[in-house]
Structure formats: structure tokens, C-alpha cells
Amino acid sequence: MSKLLVYPVVLHPEDTGYTVEVPDITGGFTQGEDLTNALEMASDMIGLMLEDTTNYPKPSKLESIHVADNDIKTIVAIDMDDYRRNNPKTIRKTVTVPEYLVKMGKEKNLNFSAVLTKALKTELNL
């Protein structure tokens, strides 16, 4: 089951492109070269700002967002589980494995991190 988040965004037209504001996320500003790029950047910024939490800000109702005449208000959706899978952070873990497996793995030039990652994904049905 995925965690789909939907937030209102405000697009402020500039001479070239858009400045994008996500009112519900502190520091939630980005920009895009055109409408499509601006919405992609908004989605990516939301993912980046929220990737280390599961305590997501409550989204405002679109109708409660007030904008200037030339601004555009819309919504952006992002699947946080998908975002995390496609933008993984890595951490160093110390693991213990039998010595003979380490020796055999080195002889085969195995990347131990890649093997462990693959095994974990298999075990977790990812």
C-alpha cells in the first residue's frame, strides 16, 4: 500500500517560468522553467522536504488558498513510498557474515552492499 500525499501549490508566473510555493510545507519554494517542470519540481521538493518523516503536514483545502489574479493554484500528488524507493539514501551498516563467504565473495569480486540490498529487497517483497 502506498502513501499518496496531495498538497495545494501556488504557481507564480515569472518573466520566464514559475516560482512555486507549497504553503503547507515550511520553506516550500521552488521554481520551474515551464508549467510541467514547475509541477515536477514541486513534487520533488515535497518528497525531499518530507522524506525523513512520516508525520506529514495536513494539507490545506484548495479553496482556502488565496492567490493574486495572475497566480495559479492547483494540487500536486506524490507517492512517498515510491519517492523513497527512487531516491534512496544509503547508510553504512556493520554486518557479521561467515569468513568463508567473505573469502568466496572477494574471489568473485562481489559487491557486498549490492548483494545485501538485493537480498533485503527479496526478503521484504520489494
Q: How would the blueprint of this fold be written?
A:
Layout: E1 4-13, E2 18-21, E3 29-32, H1 35-50, E4 72-79, H2 80-86, H3 99-107, H4 112-123
Antiparallel strand pairs: 1-2, 1-4, 2-3
Descriptive notes:
The chain is an alpha+beta fold and 126 residues long. The chain is built from four helices and four strands. It has a four-stranded antiparallel beta sheet with strand order 3-2-1-4. The longest helix has 16 residues, at 35-50. The model has no long low-confidence stretch (mean pLDDT 89).
List the defining traits of the structure above.
about 130 residues, alpha+beta, four-stranded antiparallel beta sheet, elongated
Class from helix and strand fractions: alpha+beta
What separation lies between the terminal Cα atoms?
12 Å
Gyration radius, rounded: 21 Å
The counted number of beta strands is: 4
In short:
The protein is of the alpha+beta class and 126 residues long.
